[in-house]
Amino acid sequence: MNKPFVIAQISDCHLFADVKEQHCGANVYHNLIDTLTQLKQRSDVDVIIFTGDLTQDHSNGSYQRFVQAVQVCQIDMPFYYLPGNHDDLEKLDEYLVGYPFDKNKVIESNDWQVILLNSKSDNPSGHVSSNTLQWLQQTIDLNKKQLLMMHHHPIDVGYFIDRHGLINQGEFWQELAKMPSIKAIACGHIHQALDLLPAKTQHVIPVYTCPATSIQFDVEMDTVSDNGQGPGYRLFTLAHTGELSSKAIFLKNEDR
């Protein structure tokens, strides 16, 4: 029996150069350490994919803290990444070097392609350029199924973060309609774990959002606020039959 390909998605760390600095009352560096520690203990995960917003203070030190956390937790599986709206892709490529980091944006298994799309724009909202969409169409192997991963959410979720969602949703979905082998989309940015399935949306491709390692947003508020749920991550299991399953996992809150 072919072993399924298992991906752990982490997102939205919002680190500072100072490991004691807090974001909305949470020590985000410790939350990242706790998340990576749990992933290190899992024997089923093949790769980790980080879907953006490494930094909160935009400092070089925050990128160094991310690398430090991966090293401290002795992560020994391939670790891929893409930029969030807070991030600088050049800094990601500068600091996230050497194993386990891998800057490739296409991950191949026998039956699947996992494709990382850059949705970063020159403001907090997202934009997937026409060049990126063209690259996507050229990259897809029609003999395989695809999971797309990106930072920004390509569909509204009903709270304040929609002000900074994907601004070219119409173009994005119009192009994806030409690519029927795409099975699912995974994103970060919204600091919540949602399964936006076709029955709830106008689109045939399900969208799965990743809980943040930093804080989960309080969706009743009109701005960034922690709902107290604690850090989390998402798992994807890609079967050789072309089936995909996913679940969000939250760590237990610990007093610090």
Secondary structure topology:
Elements: E1 5-10, E2 22-23, E3 26-27, H1 28-40, E4 47-50, H2 60-72, E5 79-81, H3 89-95, E6 101-102, E7 106-108, E8 112-116, H4 130-139, E9 145-150, H5 169-176, E10 182-187, E11 195-196, E12 207-209, E13 232-238, E14 244-250
Parallel strand pairs: 1-4, 4-5, 5-6, 8-9, 9-10, 10-12
Antiparallel strand pairs: 1-13, 2-3, 7-8, 11-12, 13-14
Helix pairs in contact: 1-2
Could you walk me through the main structural features you see in this protein, from its secondary elements to its overall organization?
The protein is of the alpha/beta class. The protein has one domain (5-250): 4-Layer Sandwich (Purple Acid Phosphatase, chain A, domain 2). It is 20% helix and 23% strand. The chain contains five helices and 14 strands. The protein has helices at 28-40, 60-72, 89-95, 130-139, 169-176, and strands at residues 5-10, 22-23, 26-27, 47-50, 79-81, 101-102, 106-108, 112-116, 145-150, 182-187, 195-196, 207-209, 232-238, 244-250. The strands form three sheets. It has a six-stranded mixed sheet with strand order 6-5-4-1-13-14, with no helix packed on it. A six-stranded mixed sheet has the order 7-8-9-10-12-11, with no helix packed on it. A hairpin with a 2-residue loop joins strand 2 (22-23) and strand 3 (26-27). Helix 1 packs parallel to helix 2 (60-72). The longest helix is centred in the first third of the chain and has 13 residues, at 28-40. It is globular and about 45 Å long. It starts with a strand and ends in a 6-residue tail after the last strand. The relative contact order is 0.18.
